[in-house]
Design brief:
- Strand 13, helix 10 (324-327) and strand 14 (335-344) form a beta-alpha-beta unit.
- This protein is an alpha/beta fold and 506 residues long.
- The chain has helices at residues 7-23, 27-39, 43-62, 91-103, 152-155, 169-179, 198-208, 215-221, 226-239, 324-327, 347-358, 398-408, 421-429, 442-446, 486-500, and strands at 3-6, 72-80, 83-86, 115-116, 123-124, 132-138, 143-150, 159-163, 188-195, 254-262, 269-276, 282-287, 315-318, 335-344, 371-373, 412-415, 433-436, 449-456, 465-479.
- The longest helix is centred in the first third of the chain and has 20 residues, at 43-62.
């Protein structure tokens, strides 16, 4: 029986799904994070997960993005062979129109992060199109669609290898995960694709991330095939690495491991890993010819009631008066509440500033004794001073760090995840500091921002230099003025505790 699918129904369904996943986590993901939160023994990791859970509930209530990076859209479309289209444009154009409408919705504007001419001008397309779309033609008379919005920080940690047939997939994964660092914002999921060709393994890994979190069910019933055996073994062994939430060390690095495989050439074993971050976003719908397929909001009762407590050990710091001597007193792992004025800037702004410094030109703002926050915020709506404004991956700014510290008088930096060796050396040499904000808690962070104005490079849009006035913005000392990094010492400590049996992972 032939089904007629209308163009408007697909467009509306795609737009609705993308808006929905921008502020609703999948319930299975929230339940998994909550379980990990309850069993976590590392206070720093537990605190990070508390912020993720609080942020998630706030976004569900306020219908604002979970993360400031609202992702690159990936769509999997299965088209029934008995479907007929009532449309004036192609399927790709229809999907992209849905993306365009979702990201420009005035009630919940989503950040446009897609750049054309990726190795040249890198010009923002302005509406987050085009999406990456995969099609499959199948028997039937419906159109089945999975929509996902993948953050750049987690996508950047993708790994691929063409192993020899006799090589161990487990050994390779355990070698790769520590090298991924914390820029993918654990705890999250790992999608693993095995077999086929290089591009097929990658596609399998991405598809695997659409499956629900169900590792506990698998543990209870036991594995029935090789993929399930790998899931169980890797879930246990990856968590035993002690990397923990946000890379701070702890008991839960992954909430689940998904594995899909495909027949491959006798000479090959293609393997891909793609992580999903704390802003896991995906939705599914089916068009049957009876109108758009809109998402059903979950109940807020599905979110745990978590409170973030300020302990007696928390330092309160005034950014307007903080000194180089003050910074020297801070220790890795310290929790700090920042108040006062900070600057912002990420990749494009740093490139522009270092180019200006190389030419002897004056920067648009004096950075002496100030802190810079690596962020590209979402545009504000209604009475907001700024939209969700969580941190971006700090390692991308590593190559600029020494120049910025030594030629601008910058005192400190704020971002997410670890810093690399060249940045840590620059921080140590200049007795500076690097502070870490929680990735995946963008709306929560935005509540601490009381005003925002552009001070430089307005042409860069969300990558412009802003000045934020903040009140009690929570951060952790990640690299102190002596160059000690919590992202090194934390996982080492917790891996040792796990190996010694002082604590257990489940």
């Amino acid at each position: 029986m032939t089904t007629v699918i209308k163009e408007a129904d697909l467009i509306e369904s795609v737009a609705d799904a993308l808006q929905f996943i921008s502020y609703y986590h999948p319930v299975d993901f929230i339940q998994a994070v909550h379980q990990a939160y309850e069993r976590e023994a590392n206070p720093a990791a537990k605190d990070a997960m508390a912020q993720i859970l609080i942020n998630s509930r706030m976004c569900a209530m306020g219908h604002r993005p979970i993360c400031q990076d609202t992702g690159i859209v990936t769509v999997f479309v299965e088209v029934g062979m008995d479907v007929q289209w009532d449309a004036s444009q192609g399927l790709t154009d229809m999907v992209n129109e849905g993306v365009r409408r979702a990201y420009s919705n005035p009630d919940n504007v989503l950040r446009a992060s897609i750049l054309s001419d990726p190795d040249g001008a890198r010009k923002n397309t302005g509406d987050n199109t085009p999406a990456v779309i995969h099609y499959n033609i199948v028997p039937g008379n419906t159109v089945d669609v999975h929509v996902a919005a993948k953050g750049g920080g987690s996508e950047a940690k993708t790994k691929f290898a063409m192993l020899n047939p006799s090589d161990s997939v487990v050994d390779w994964v355990l070698d790769m995960v520590p090298k991924m660092g914390a820029g993918w914002c654990p705890p999250g999921m790992l999608g693993i694709g095995i077999g086929g060709t290089a591009e097929k393994a990658m596609l399998l890994a991405k598809e695997a991330l659409l499956d629900p979190v169900d590792i506990q069910d698998l543990q209870a019933r036991g594995a029935s095939n090789r993929c399930e055996e790998l899931r169980l073994e890797l879930y246990d062994k990856v968590n035993r690495l002690g990397i923990g939430a946000q890379g701070l060390g702890g008991l839960t690095t992954v909430l689940d491991v998904k594995v899909k495989d495909y027949p491959t050439h006798a000479a090959n074993k293609a393997v891909a890993i793609i992580p999903n971050c704390a802003a896991t976003r995906h939705a599914h719908f089916t068009l049957k010819g009876d109108g758009p397929a809109l998402q059903t909001p979950p109940s807020l009762d599905d979110w745990p009631e978590i409170s973030w407590e300020v302990s007696d050990t928390v330092r309160r710091v005034n950014l307007d008066t903080v000194s180089a001597e003050d910074v020297k007193q801070w220790q890795p792992g310290d929790t700090i509440l920042l108040s006062g004025k900070m600057l912002t800037g990420r990749d494009a702004a740093h490139k522009k500033m270092t180019d200006m410094l190389a030419k002897g030109e004056k920067l648009p703002v004096d950075m002496t004794g100030r802190f810079i926050y690596y962020v590209g915020p979402v545009d504000p709506v209604r009475d907001e001073v700024v939209g969700p404004a969580g941190p971006t991956t700090a390692t991308r700014m590593d190559k600029f760090t020494r120049t910025m510290l030594e030629e601008t008088g910058l005192l400190g930096m704020i971002g997410k995840a670890e810093r690399g060796p060249i940045a840590i050396e620059a921080i140590r040499d200049n007795e500076s500091v690097y502070l870490m904000a929680v990735g995946g808690a963008a709306y929560l962070v935005a509540q601490a921002i009381k005003s925002a104005k552009v001070l430089g490079f307005p042409e860069l849009g969300m990558e412009a230099i802003y000045e934020f006035d903040v009140k009690d913005m929570p951060v952790t000392v990640a690299v102190d003025s002596k160059g000690e990094s919590i992202h090194k010492t934390g996982p080492q400590m917790w891996r040792a505790k796990i190996e010694e049996g002082v604590v257990t992972v489940s």
